[in-house]
Amino acid sequence: MLTINVPELITCDAVITGNLSCPVGTPVEGAEVFFSDFPEDVVFYDPNPAISDANGDFSTTVTVLPGTPLTAIDVTATAEALGIFFETHAGTQVECPEEVCPCKFRIGIQRNRAPAVVKITDNGSSSKLKGNINVSAVQCFTASPMCNPEVDNFNVTFRSRGTTINFIQGRRIEIDCITDKFAMVRGTALATGNLFTGLFEVKIEVTIGPGNIGTWTIMANDNMGHTFSTTFTARMSPITSIGECGVQF
To answer: How far apart are CA 122 and CA 195, in angstroms?
Structure first.
């Protein structure tokens, strides 16, 4: 007989235990117990297979992939021992929400402007514009040794002679930081100006090098034939701060 004990709700990780015994109730030692699930690619098991001990007991740790919304799955355990094939199932719900604020940052360009060449696509027609750009982003930032999820804003403005492209009221989908030298925010923003309008997905990345010079990459797309992209360098604003939530600025 093969039995497994699966929690009714698994948030990010949990331990599954079980027991394997022969039909007359004698524990089966040293058997390999394999785990699988449906739908697939939601969780993984370690170890897999698990090995039963002298009492027929075994255990494995199940880990839910980060970013998984609440999902119902069926866990299957199988084993073969004494010429007998054993199989059992258990239903559960799993989830592992992304961390809202894995870090915090406040980034910007010194004097609020820098020269940039922007590549745009407008209804399938591509062109390049040379002008001045400004980028600012404040995510989860507070000077105290903590993160504030309520802090959520980014903006991009670009002007080239008679053309104006703005991405304003930016709201994050995800952010990332690496030490105090890299920051990224991906989210949605409202396009305004005299070329683009509507909601765009925008990604902003900056890597800070020697001399406090930032290499910026901006990409935006509305999935309807309109894109905006540029990579440029500019000195960072004096207020720039990037760090983990426990850092005090």
So the answer is: 8
Q: What is the pLDDT of residues 117-131, one digit of tens each?
A: 999 999 889 999 999
Q: What is the DSSP string of 67-89?
A: TEEEEEEEEEEEEEETTEEEEEE
Q: Is 180 left (phi over 0), alpha (psi -120 to 50) or beta?
A: alpha
pTM: 0.66
Task: At 113, list the tokens.
Answer: 């402007």
Does residue 89 contact residue 16 with C-beta atoms inside 8 Å? no
Fill in the DSSP letter of residue 42.
S
d(C-alpha 249, C-alpha 247), whole Å: 6
Torsion angle, CA of 214/111/141/212, rounded to 10 degrees? Answer: 30
Terminal alpha carbon distance of the chain: 59
pLDDT in tens, 146-160: 999 999 999 999 999
Domains identified in the chain and CATH numbers: 2-96 (2.60.40.10), 104-243 (2.40.128)
Tell me the CA distances in angstroms from 168 to 157, 164, 204, 227, one per residue in order. Answer: 8, 12, 13, 15
